[in-house]
Amino acid sequence: MSWLTNFVLPKIRAVVAKKEVPDNLWDKCPHCGQMLFHRELEANLYVCHACGHHLRLSPQRRLAMLFDDGAFTRIELPKTPADPLKFRDRKRYAERLKEAQAKNGGNGDAIWVAHGQIGGIAAVVAAFDFGFMGGSMGIAVGEGLLAAARLAVLQEAPLIVVPASGGARMQEGILSLIQMPRTVLAVEEVKAAGLPYIVILTDPTTGGVSASFAMLGDITIAEPGAVIGFAGARVIEETIREKLPDGFQRAEYLLEHGMVDLVVRRAELRQTLARLIAFLRQKTPPAEIVPLPGRGEADAAAAPAD
After folding, report:
1. What is the DSSP letter of 97?
2. CA-CA distance, 55 to 156, in Å (whole number)?
3. What angle do CA 115, 117, 118 make, to 5 degrees?
């Protein structure tokens, strides 16, 4: 009996026992519902191979994807008041911040700023973290964008901003709305220095973010299918009492209507950025400048022959 108990039964239990599968092996595409193996999804830059939907990226993955060889240096951002208004709804704002920071590995707020090289040219990138309170813009995000702009001016490098945000952070009230003009001024510092300012609109870019720095790029790029707008489509429909067209507020719709310059797939984004930066930073034209003929020469050339 001891032989059966000690040897045979454990073997049987090991065979028939249900093996635990790690939770992070599979992801579900939010667009088509396809189950995606995480290694294949990571290799495909978090783009669904079934429908082409671009899933949201963490700022760390975003920066690694944009910079050459995935190498970048993240800068420390200025410290800001955690809860300036002592705001409370169902929970204290200070508690919400602590929970968001714990969930996101201790990251201070909804923005990362880093510098490195893109196409062999120095660049500064500010990437939003939608996983941190919906990427909402408060004082910390405003300070982050100001720091990014000043770093770009200091390094004489282009500034690239990648918003993914629901808009201003309501828990900071008027202080969050003040960040809209502050971020516009940050962009103006970069442009006044003669440096390129490029925006990559990702899903979603809405509210006070879309109404400020996100729409001021020298070149505006969007990822396919990204939701871009100020108010939500349902709110607009209820306000104007009309049915909105298909694809309204999507990147492709904005491209057709002149609000976006390019819609670029994620796999081509770094190459596209490198090409744009090289073109914008080129100080001399690549071709020989041919002088225009004088007025007399032009008139003589245009006169009919006798």
Report:
1. H
2. 32
3. 120
**Residues in CB range of 65: below 8 A, 6 or more apart:** 45, 57, 266, 269, 270
Q: What is the pTM of this model?
A: 0.85
Residue (of 79, 45, 22, 77) closest to 223 by Cα position: 45
**What pLDDT is recorded for position 112?**
97
Using DSSP's 3-state secondary structure scheme, residue 63 falls into helix
**Half-sphere exposure at residue 55, Cβ-oriented, CA atoms within 13 angstroms:** 25
CA atoms within 13 A on the CB side of 256: 10
* Residue 117 phi, psi (nearest 5): -130, 140
DSSP class of residue 81? -
The DSSP secondary-structure symbol of 65 reads H
Q: What is the pLDDT of residue 275?
A: 97
> In order of start, what are the domains of the chain with their CATH numbers?
19-55 (no CATH), 57-283 (3.90.226.10)
Compute mean pLDDT per 10 residues along the chain, 306 residues long, and list them.
62 61 78 93 94 95 97 96 92 94 87 97 97 96 98 98 96 96 98 97 96 97 97 91 93 96 97 96 74 64 58
Q: Is 86 exposed, middle or buried (0-12, 13-18, 19+ CB in 10 A)?
A: exposed
